[in-house]
Amino acid sequence: MSKKVKLETLDDVTIRFAGDSGDGMQLSGGRFTQTSAIVGNDLSTLPDFPAEIRAPAGSLAGVSSFQIHFSSHEIHTPGEEPDVLIAMNPAALKVHLEELVPGGILVVNKNAFTKKNLKLAGYESDPTEDGSLDDYYSVHYIEMSKLVTNACEGLDLPPKTVERTKNLCALGVLFWMYDRPLEPTLDWLKKKYSDREWSDRFEPVLGFDLIISSDVIEHVSNPDNLLDLIEKSKPKLIVLSTPDRNLLNKGQDGPPKNTAHFREWSFQEFRNYIESRFNIIEHLITHEKQATQTIVCELRK
Fold first, then answer.
1. Mean per-residue pLDDT of the chain
2. Residue 241 in contact with residue 265, Cβ under 8 Å?
3. How many domains does the chain have?
């Protein structure tokens, strides 16, 4: 996932969630569908259930999928070949890969590619390791099981319950990729499990002595949100660095050459922007060859 972010405006997209019958693909697809409807997309869906009832976990016959075709204009079908395939295990990859469009996006749950699961799916070698996928698709290998284990640390949940949340990890990846809001799904979860105690894990930790944001702000679509989060965290001191546009481009105007940057500031522009929120203690060029400018500041009293 450590690839440059490229923003595109698309007319329509077809996504297929695929995994074992117990991986929650219908739920993830359903949540993506409802969220897309809320933001005003037209859509059509196609759920696909396992070929066999109670098929062995990890087997080809036990694969379940959910396809959604969504668009900014009117559509009438759930799509044919998916533009994006979420493969939660080797069997899902085996069953659905041939239908993914050439050059399509492939998101793989890397943790599921064990020797046992590979054998059940009929693979003689691991396709996530031999390079056979990377030449034909835009592949993202994500350790979903590891991520949800880390996210649920300290919640005193059984390992099997934690493992079952990986479908929400996959859903979150798609929400991020296609700029879908989290709030409808968070509200749905709170209503569905209203008897549980909920805590907002998005609330910032308060009382830091120091927050350092090193060459991050230029990658954020709305830098005000980043500064809001810093302000809410109530640090004693803040250090912010970002490229100086004039040094970086040698005085030439134009959009950022680095496609991962949403914007770049000149020395004075960055000073004016940060000064509108915080008290500046020091502002200097800290690395001229890399065109880095740094501001040391503090919260306003």
1. 88
2. no
3. 2
